[in-house]
Amino acid sequence: MPPTRPRTRTADTSPAPPRRGGRGTVDPRRIRADDLRYLLAVTRTGRLVAAADALGVDHTTVSRRIAALEKSLGLRLMERGAEGWALTDAGKAVAENARAIEDALARVAEAVSGQDSPSLHGTVRVSAPDAFGTVIATPALARVRRRHPDLQVELITATRQLTLHPSGFDLALAIGRPAGNRLVTEHLTDYALGLYASAEYLDRCGSPGSAAELRDHTLIFYIESMLQVGDLDIERHLPGVTPAFSSTNVFAQLEAARLGAGIGVLPAFLTRRSGLLRLLPHEVDIRLPITLAVRREAVTHPAVRAVRDALRREVAERGGELLPQ
Q1: Angle formed at CA 302 by CA 299 and CA 304, multiple of 5 degrees
Q2: Is residue 1 part of a domain?
Q3: Tell me, what DSSP letter sits at residue 133?
Q4: Domain that holds residue 254
Q5: In a domain, 10, yes or no
Q6: The CATH number of the domain where 68 resides is what?
Q7: Coil, strand or helix: which one is 155?
Q8: pLDDT digits over 188-200, tens only?
Q9: Rounded CA gap, 195 and 174, in Å?
Q10: Model confidence over 1-19: pLDDT tens digits?
Q11: Within a domain: residue 270?
């Protein structure tokens, strides 16, 4: 029988030790409150390097401090996934309580500086589709910042599917209704999409008399092979019609339609003051939902609640743009 070859051990590149078998009593004196800031930074960004930039340190420091926190607690707090670093169930519980400590430190700094009126602190990262994030979410976020100048707000815009393994954001806006229970979700609003074209295009190519006649026109929409949102699948809404001018960016689609490159399938709220003309409004009127999602451990955070409320108000005030009659 041949000798058994010794196994080669693979180095563990994660920032944390393995989870211990059971949860024993943790001595609070072994927990460094400052390490919790590092955990929250990675929670918000999902990336060690991004968290390091936010904290003004290098990524090895972030990794070392989280490892020290996990060692003191005897629990794995974060795990690596396809979308970056995400909290474990134990990590979510720790992060939720760490927020309270972060807020308390901010209030101490506020009291020392002599500020009488309460102001929100910290960082809130929001993820949203390109158009909705720019036209609807940005005014809401700007209003929160005017009221709370010490609050840092980060807006990431990308039209993509909302991940069921959330990392890299506190609050997200997404097209459609995501499944799963890892996020606290609510239906924020519906919005309308329609067919829009420039007067120049219509003079040159004519106006379609029905949706079936769109096959004879240049349609402008997303690149089908790169589309990450199922609700935007053009085949669902206009069967048999294939876009001839495509872009991953809805603002490029808007500009192409404005320049007469074809007929765009565009959000109604994006076409205001564009000079584009609505076509077949009674036959092609696409309605899609926008979901507002918050990571469970961030739901009770005052800054996240403030942003959430601001988004709700913005949508309520601009319902006529989102769903025009």
Answers
A1: 55
A2: no
A3: I
A4: 189-284
A5: no
A6: 1.10.10.10
A7: strand
A8: 999 999 999 999 9
A9: 22
A10: 455 544 444 444 444 444 4
A11: yes
